[in-house]
Write a structure and sequence with these properties.
CATH superfamily of one domain: HUPs
Strand order of the largest sheet: 3-2-1-4
Radius of gyration: 19 Å
Order of helices and strands: HEHEHEHHEHHHHHHH
Structural class: alpha/beta
Distance between the termini: 42 Å
CATH topology of one domain: Rossmann fold
Helix content: 40-55%
Shape: globular
Number of helices: 12
Number of strands: 4
CATH architecture of one domain: 3-Layer(aba) Sandwich
Length: 269
């Protein structure tokens, strides 16, 4: 019985390079802006963009908020230096504090974390517009399918170079390209609060999640995925339900159809 574990296609790197050159070089744009978080996704995106477009067309932006340690900042700036790309560190901590003061009744940490993600995207798009660049998203296929991103935050980008790579494939490509050990080994996290991890919030390891999602991609039933992966049927159904309920994050907002052709419905670009 064929294993459901995704395997990195041999052409992945070259395909992403071609994709970036097609969308982010003149006359379309002057390059890309990428938010650098210290995590594997943003580090890989910056590396792929540097290799595809040239270092002078990649601008890294660190956007630390409360909880972003000095050691992580220094490590991330050092990584950008080694890539040879220009980078800026623009703290959003004061913006976050002012926002919290504006709505003091809001205390839910997920809601406040989503606000930080949206503040960061405001900064990235402001810098991108001024430098005639596109905002390079860092979301991967696992996050997109699970809805594990902030709508109009890290989910609001111009390009998604690793959006068709599962998280396990991201790790494989990052290792293949020789990204630094601390980046490869760091538990994935949005960093919104101390101790937060992706896998802790999602309730399963990325290894298991990706096998379930890969089964879904192949149009397998929940029972088939559970049997072939060895993962409990309850867990498989929980993950598939999350994919279904996060569908709205992967679509344009619904538009009330009034005219002959409607954006997001039957208007063909």
């Amino acid at each position: 019985m064929k294993d459901l574990t995704p395997h990195l296609p041999k052409h992945a790197e070259s395909t992403i390079h071609q994709f970036l050159r097609a969308h982010a070089l003149p006359p379309a744009a002057e390059g890309v802006v990428v938010g650098l978080s210290g995590g594997i996704d943003s580090a890989l995106c910056a590396r792929l963009a540097r290799d595809a477009l040239g270092a002078d067309r990649v601008l890294g932006i660190l956007l630390p908020a409360a909880g972003f340690s000095d050691s992580l900042r220094q490590e991330t700036e050092g990584y950008a230096d080694r890539l040879g790309i220009a980078h800026r560190t623009l703290s959003v901590e004061e913006m976050d504090q002012r926002f919290r003061a504006l709505v003091p009744e809001v205390t839910d940490r997920v809601t406040l974390g989503n606000a930080v993600a949206r503040l960061r995207m405001v900064v990235l798009y402001t810098v991108a517009r001024e430098t005639h660049r596109l905002v390079l998203g860092t979301g991967n296929k696992s996050e997109l399918l699970l809805g594990y991103f902030t709508k109009y935050g890290d989910g609001g980008t111009d390009l998604l170079p690793i959006g068709d790579l599962y998280k396990t494939e991201v790790r494989a490509l990052a290792a293949e390209l020789g990204l630094p050990g601390p980046i490869l080994d760091r538990p994935p996290t949005a960093g919104f609060w101390e101790g937060q991890t992706d896998e802790g919030e999602l309730g399963s390891s990325y290894q298991d999640l990706d096998r379930i999602l890969h089964g879904l991609e192949q149009l397998l039933r929940a029972e088939e995925i559970a049997e072939r992966s060895g993962i409990s049927l309850e867990t498989v159904r929980r993950v598939l339900e999350r994919v279904a309920t996060s569908r709205h994050k992967r679509r344009l907002p619904p538009v009330a159809k009034v005219g002959l052709r409607t954006v997001g419905l039957d208007w063909r670009e």
